[in-house]
Specification:
The chain is an alpha+beta fold and 226 residues long. It is 38% helix and 21% strand. It has eight helices and ten strands. It has a six-stranded antiparallel beta sheet, with no helix packed on it. A four-stranded antiparallel beta sheet has the order 1-8-3-6. Helix 6 (178-184) packs across helix 7. The protein is elongated, with a radius of gyration of 20 Å. 21% of the residues are buried.
């Protein structure tokens, strides 16, 4: 394998800390499926079975969550490299929570669950890395569930977003009508309208069209409403 590819793989969090020699040993025992995806291609769909690890190596991907009751859709622009929902590889629900669609040509590498279990988990560094990812995800979600109820409508809106986004940074777009949003955060439509207008005036959100709320940077929105 090319030295440049070794360097790219060693930069991935799951391989972080491995030596080139250890990575060579792993690669000799597993199958790495490198793929190129064209613009507009769906890598996986929400509710697809998660039976492999998929790393996005380059290119921009949209992560989309559709509410099971069709009340809203939330899309996020994902940075790279990133691993698609490693927590779904195990547990009671082994299906993806989101759909991932390319917004430009994208490179991915896929590792089967069998290879991950039988080979990669024999390396303590890989095991530690995946445990750190899973624990960080669990701790983040646990912290969100224990937060006190916000005192203002604006903070209720931010809390709603924080509880549904996959990552707390980057650009997000929420597709929802005002009545549904008001119902979900237990506020009046008028109060929600005023709060959104205030966030818009602060430059923290935009509303390009009816039923669409664009958040240019989620982290900035969170910081301004801490």
């Amino acid at each position: 394998m090319e030295n440049s590819m070794y360097r790219r793989l060693l930069m991935l969090p799951i391989f972080n800390g491995l030596t080139t020699g250890e990575l060579t040993q792993i690669i000799a025992q597993i199958h790495l499926d490198f793929s190129q995806h064209s613009d507009g291609e769906t890598i996986v769909s929400q509710d697809d079975r998660c039976d492999r690890l998929i790393y996005v190596l380059s290119g921009q991907v949209e992560c989309e969550y559709r509410d099971p009751e069709n009340r809203f859709t939330l899309s996020e622009l994902m940075g790279q490299p990133f691993l698609l929902e490693p927590s779904k590889l195990y547990g009671m629900s082994q299906r993806y929570d989101h759909s991932y669609t390319t917004l430009e040509p994208v490179d991915t590498v896929t590792i089967s669950k069998r290879d991950f279990n039988n080979v990669m988990l024999n390396y303590s560094i890989v095991k530690t890395n995946i445990l750190n990812m899973l624990c960080a995800r669990i701790q983040h979600l646990t912290k969100l569930t224990r937060e006190a109820e916000p005192g203002t409508v604006q903070k209720k809106l931010v809390q709603f977003l924080r509880r549904h986004v996959y990552t707390p940074k980057g650009q997000k777009t929420l597709y929802i009508n005002m009545e549904t949003l008001a119902m979900l955060i237990q506020e009046t439509r008028l109060n929600v309208s005023f709060a959104l207008r205030n966030l818009n005036q602060q430059g923290l959100i935009d509303q390009p069209r009816r039923g669409q709320i664009l958040i240019p940077d989620m982290q900035t929105l969170i910081i301004h409403n801490a």
